Amino acid sequence: MISFRSRLLITVGTCLLSLTACDKEKIPLTGERESFITLSTRLQPDANLANQVVSVPAAVVLTEWPQNAGNTLHSLPPLTLDLNPTLQWQTSMGRGVTDYQRLLSGIVIAQNVVYAIDSAGTVTALSLNEKQPKILWQQSTEAEHITGDALGGGVATEGGKVFVTSSFAEVLALDSKDGKILWRSSASGPIRSAPTCKDGRVFVTTISNETIAYDANTGKQLWTHAGITEQASLLGGASPAVSDNVVIVAYSSGEIYALQAENGQVLWSDTLTSAVRIDTVSSIPHIHAAPVVEGGKVFAVSHGGKMIAIDLKTGVREWQREIGGLHAPAVAGSWLFILSNHGDVFCLQKDTGAIRWVAALPKSSADDKESIYWAGPIIANDQLVFAGSNGQVQFVNVADGKPAKTLSFSGQTFLSPVIVNKTLFILNDQAELYAWQ
């Protein structure tokens, strides 16, 4: 089993590698070991909210999931799912993880077809129209002029096209019917996050913190925007969010920008970087989680231990919490739910950031030999849904954070769950897709 830390590879200067190589004698360090991914402080619920009832709007049936995190806003209502779902089927979506290849992006679904990119850079289209799913086509996105292993990328779909980002520094458009390559364009660097497409434009972010907009019909590059280059970052990244004519982009430097969709002009910016980086968390300010736009606010969380709410129009910061995370929060009604780096689930008041409750997900296996890492949440009915590296799906009540039911699957995953048409989907590390109804 490949560990979670091997997936969150840190890009560091070669001087550190050189120093390590010079050590001839291994001298054990004294003192207490501290987890690399941890929180500097423990946050407690606000006593003033003790009598506040946490509830979410009625669940709806979502028929498509065409973008990373569900849509261009990365914000979804509670979704309808059977109270006791059972496993319907499982099938392969391609090649799973290897020592050198990873699955960094989840599935998208449109017109009852699932699209996914595997660890080798092959896109698979899977029809859900039959009782048993059927592969419609597969298309390799490997660049002909480049040798090496694929490492990341993602997919999104709009207007009969499937847009693909590649670690080979390319963006492609495929025909959603047969997988034929309609166009392929170069980027300034590898891309390890999924694209976002809206209104005839495709937006991608490279590992060097550059956002590029392409014409969805031709692949022509429309504009670029560059942030600060960061020497240390996590593997993967945040897909841009798009709200009307505003594109929200987040970088591994901890910067977040609002850009005009038609020309890339900066409307406002903020940063989630700590003024002084004094610990393992704050030293990596990467905004790995996709920014969420909901109710006129932008919610963003960094690995470096900061979460903020920003007014979408003005860029004014409305509140801040010392919470770090790798996955986008779920926002519903008056509440926001976020999974922290430490495996704690926080319920916050959306408008103020005040904490209503904090709950801990299981952090290790029964024998304490394996750490458990979770992805999510999304909301099903009135429960939060998380997928874990322990091969379990954990449901948690939104009212109080108490655990509810669990489901099991083979292997492990570090990708968030997906719910479409009352069906729960989990893609594991071996690129096996599971479906419960």
Automatic annotation (TrEMBL):
Residues annotated as coiled-coil are none
Could you identify this protein by its name? Pyrrolo-quinoline quinone
- Annotated TM spans: none
Its source organism is: Candidatus Finniella inopinata
Xref: Pfam families:
PQQ_2 (PF13360)
Q: Which residues form the Pyrrolo-quinoline quinone repeat domain?
A: 121-357
